[in-house]
Design a protein that fits this description.
About 35% of the residues lie in helices and about 30% in strands. The protein has about 150 residues and is of the alpha/beta class. It has a domain at about 15-20 and about 30-75 and about 95-105. The N and C termini lie far apart (about 40 Å).
Length: about 150
């Protein structure tokens, strides 16, 4: 089976999305600086984010990918240790995902945010809005207790 860029496959209950690649649109070349790896299981979906969650393509790529798996997830964890930068647009995308998760009775939490992400969450007081954990394991454990 050949892997295609941006291929999505549920084989082995794992969905991988590679957004860090060159995308060609007739006259322009866009390079997304975000890589997402999405691990979906019956219990939870974990999205490992690497790169930048910033205005336009990167922020939108995260939202698009997560919204596609959200209908099958009861618990969703965004692992943010590899996020080098997040801007106001990226924070808005996180809020959009939180609102969407709540409307679907899906528990969304953030795990292991990088220092830059932690600072932005604190400065905007969004650290009082999101459930934030130091590790994916901690987030999953808390989610299992909340769902049970």
């Amino acid at each position: 089976m050949n892997e295609m860029p941006n291929a999505r496959s549920f084989a082995g209950a794992q969905l991988c999305v590679e957004a860090e690649e060159a995308e060609t649109n007739e006259s322009e070349l866009k390079i997304l600086k975000l890589t997402l790896e999405i691990n979906a299981s019956q219990e939870a979906t974990v999205v490992y984010c690497r790169g930048r969650i910033v205005f336009r393509e990167e922020g939108t790529a995260l939202t698009d990918a997560v919204l596609k798996v959200m209908p099958i997830a009861r618990q969703l964890v965004l692992e943010l240790s590899g996020v080098e930068m997040i801007d106001n647009f990226g924070l808005g995308e996180l809020l959009l995902l939180l609102r969407s998760a709540r409307s679907r009775n899906c528990l969304l939490s953030l795990a292991a945010p990088s220092a830059q992400v932690q600072e932005m969450l604190h400065l905007t007081r969004l650290d009082t809005v999101f459930d934030i954990f130091s590790s994916v394991e901690e987030a999953l454990s808390s989610g299992r207790e909340a769902i049970a």
